[in-house]
Amino acid sequence: MRRWLWLICLWGSYSYAVDLASQLPPGAKMSWLETTEIKVGVDLNRGGAIVYLAGQDGTNLINNFDLGRQVQLSYFSGPVPFEAEGQKPKEHWQHIGWNPIQAGDDFGHRSEILVHENDGKTLHVRCRPLQWPLSGVPGECVMDSWLELEGKVVQAKARLTNSRRDTTPWPARLQELPAVYGNAGLHRIISYQGLHPFQNEPATLVPKPQGKHPWSFWIGTEGWAAMLDADDHGLGLITPGRVHFTGGFAGKPGKNETLSNSTGYLAGQGQEILDHNIVHEFRYELVLGSMKDIRDRAAHHKRPAPPIWRFQQDRQGWHHRQLMDQGWPIQGCLRLQLEQSDPQLVSPFCFWQAQEAPQLVIDAAFHTRQTTATIFWQRHGTSAPQPSDSMSFPIQGDGIRRRYVVNLSNANSYRGSLIRLRLDPVSSGSPGDWAEIHAIELCKVTE
Description:
Layout: H1 2-22, E1 30-34, E2 39-43, E3 49-54, E4 71-74, E5 100-101, E6 112-118, E7 123-128, E8 130-131, E9 141-150, E10 153-162, E11 173-182, E12 188-191, E13 204-205, E14 216-219, E15 224-228, E16 233-238, E17 244-250, E18 263-272, E19 279-290, H2 291-299, E20 308-310, E21 319-321, E22 324-325, E23 334-337, E24 344-346, E25 352-353, E26 359-367, E27 372-379, E28 390-394, E29 402-407, E30 417-424, E31 434-443
Antiparallel strand pairs: 1-2, 2-3, 4-11, 5-8, 6-7, 7-9, 9-10, 10-19, 11-18, 12-13, 12-15, 14-17, 15-16, 16-19, 17-18, 20-31, 21-24, 22-23, 23-31, 24-30, 25-30, 26-29, 26-31, 27-28, 27-30
């Protein structure tokens, strides 16, 4: 009897191992975290990218068709196209530019793990990523990822540390913060895109884009997006402080098979400048469960006040056009050289109601002969500010730090829901013009 019991137990363990192996990419070397509700695994043979995430039934929801899938870190900068070590990218990747990713490259080479730590509560990996469009070319950077679990939630912190020899100040690019690929069973891309976040209004399907490209872009005003099955269960991505997303579904809906080519995709979006020596960090969460589970978790990150940006240590997600700043590191403020035509400082996408923030306060110093600056705002549902969505205000160009209060509510078009700001410190720069921006705050009426 004992022999039969032993064989039954052995067979059960073997069946589980076989089933788990079928849920993983070939040759995976795994490191795990788990609770009673979820289990997450990273692959140490793929740069520590997340290759497995499952609930109690053990079904992996992460797609691993190639090294460009998984849940992983991916960054973009110039030049475009990017060439290195005598290699040029294939024609269909020329638009990608500089693009190190966590798992490996398009030629099947895998990124190298430099550090792996797992105490059962926190899982930390550091890798030397590879340039996706080239063959076996390491990025001149390292990527770190820290994972912890809380119930059905994977809490993640990510860091890029650049050490590029190319010190060119390349312009901002859209970043994947992070890239999330799910299986064919999660074919419904859902988000709340309305004007009244966290008031229990219905979330909606993200419409497919026109043309051949499968991914859409949208403002998810509750800070989440999800890939769900027909029963509204699946995988949610929460991006605290960010509302800009891309995603979609490519292929045919089907089963949750990790090596299938059909896939859902989500990414948090941020238009970021990646200096040659930058240390860039962000946080995100993955939620396994129902749409209600995902929305309830997103509500924990709700920011009740209009946005405030203090530029003490970083750019706070802002980027610029037709101007230069001091580069990394940011120390105390943004130091802007305003010597080009039409210099612009552009905020990240966010969300606020005009009546919540009738005033804008800018803590800044200007050194210029010009006497006015202009603030623009982008209304929800528009692709850019309209000519009337702006207000000029007087500045003093003596280089002394002051607090400028702009009464936005005096403008007829400053109404309803807003998603972005743009500050033009001068209309056209001259040699020697500069500005130092310490903080920008949307607020109620100040005293």
